[in-house]
Amino acid sequence: MSASLNACCILALFVVVCYAADQTRQPGAIGSEVVDAVVNLIRESCLFADDKRFLVRLAYVQSHNGYDAKTFRDGYHGGIWQVDKNMFDETHSNAGRLTNEYNIIRNQFRIDWNRVTWSDLRKPLYSGISAALYTILHGGTEWRVEDQAHFYELHFVNKAGNNFTNEAGILDLGCHGKEKLDLAFIIDRSNSLSTDDFARAKNFVRNVVDSFDITPNKTRVAVVSYASHAKSEFYLNRYTNVVDLKNAISAIPFIGGSTATSEAIDLATTNIFTPSHGSRNNAVKVMVVITDGDANDEIDTRYISKLCQK
């Protein structure tokens, strides 16, 4: 009986592992488990054995592990790691500098990188490999998040790397979860998102809060939604367990309208992070803005974002 039970357990484990592996090559697959599976494959193959957690952080910053509504937008194929076409092209045009890496990819993954196209990057493994190759081409990164943010600023986006530092900080907080955290999500529900995009945004928030210990003494969560105007959905002191919190997130309706990102950030800054609404002096305060990036009040948004960083 015991031997039979053990055999069943082994079989079940095998099925789960195979399913995770299959997801790494499934176009459009998303989630932290998929990202972890891809990164583990890349590390264990010695393609990028010492990435210093950069690939995990990059996936979270670039697309929130694929949950960002714009990850698989029409005409863009960068995948979870959001590898732009010009970045991907560098991994081909510099093949001579990546001979060893090409051989590893061929031998370990049975992939001929010369034949890979940008559209293949919708598969998580291909997107992760491309991000790894591009990072290797540009010298790799250091351990410190600040150094990785600088690398990100230079080679992945043409803007300040503070977003990388902030987002990676959220991910790392979720890993050890010892800090008191006041976390506010600013969710776009304007016409710039489709109803499917909005559902994916809420799903992302639910997945993030699952990573934290939602209690009055650890992590508190608030949500501000916005379209033509901003609204406090609930404050930091409203929910004290993850089940009720996730139900409240699911219940937020899509309404449409213009995109008042500035007003939403202002509301969170002045109305959410206050003692009367549950904010604590000794807690780390983090604001996560979920949007398509096209604010109708762009100038004000940049101004308020600078205020939030002070």
UniProtKB/TrEMBL annotation:
Residues 1-20 form the signal peptide. The keyword Cell membrane does not apply. PANTHER family: COLLAGEN ALPHA (PTHR24020), PH DOMAIN-CONTAINING PROTEIN (PTHR24020:SF20). Keywords: Signal. This is VWFA domain-containing protein. Residues 182-310 form the VWFA domain. It comes from the Eukaryota. It comes from Mytilus galloprovincialis. The lineage of its organism: Eukaryota, Metazoa, Spiralia, Lophotrochozoa, Mollusca.
